[in-house]
Design brief:
Oligomer: single chain
Number of helices: 4
Shape: rod-shaped
Helix content: 25-40%
Strand content: 15-25%
Radius of gyration: 38 Å
Largest sheet: 3 strands, antiparallel
Distance between the termini: 58 Å
């Protein structure tokens, strides 16, 4: 479970860095007060009402203002990503590594590693060696 949560956290952090450093632009086209088109990474298409009517030059009429409006929303990503370890001194980095390493072994099951000695049965005694060689402690 600990390895799975570590992998999920790593993927989450990688996606966070990717999203925070990506910049994109949203183009919106309004006709009056209503939005008619939204596009990401390309210009929004018009509604066809933004065409300017040609007025002869000898008339005194001023051209009418178009009812259409374009809006560009630009979302800038982060340009520089500085690792957090630059702010820490070498003593703090060593302490942080020691804490993480010791925390990892809190959840480490040592009973699974000693499979050879868990069900150890000593060999049967065929003869008593001390009596056979007549070696006794006084």
């Amino acid at each position: 479970m600990f390895k799975t949560s570590t992998k999920l956290f790593s993927v989450f952090m990688a996606l966070t860095v990717l999203v925070s450093t990506t910049s994109f632009t949203v183009y919106q086209h309004f006709c009056g007060d209503e939005i008619t088109d939204v596009a990401i990474f390309k210009h929004a298409e018009g509604c066809g009402m933004e065409a300017v009517v040609d007025i002869p030059e000898n008339t005194c009429h001023t051209p009418k203002k178009s009812c259409c409006n374009d809006r560009v929303v630009s979302i800038q990503g982060q340009d520089q990503v500085n690792p957090a370890t630059q702010a820490l001194s070498i003593d703090h980095q060593v302490f942080l590594v020691a804490v993480i390493y010791s925390f990892d072994y809190l959840f480490f099951d040592t009973s699974k590693n000693n499979k050879e000695t868990f069900h150890y049965y000593p060999p049967p005694i065929v003869q008593d060696i001390t009596v056979l060689h007549q070696v006794f402690r006084i």
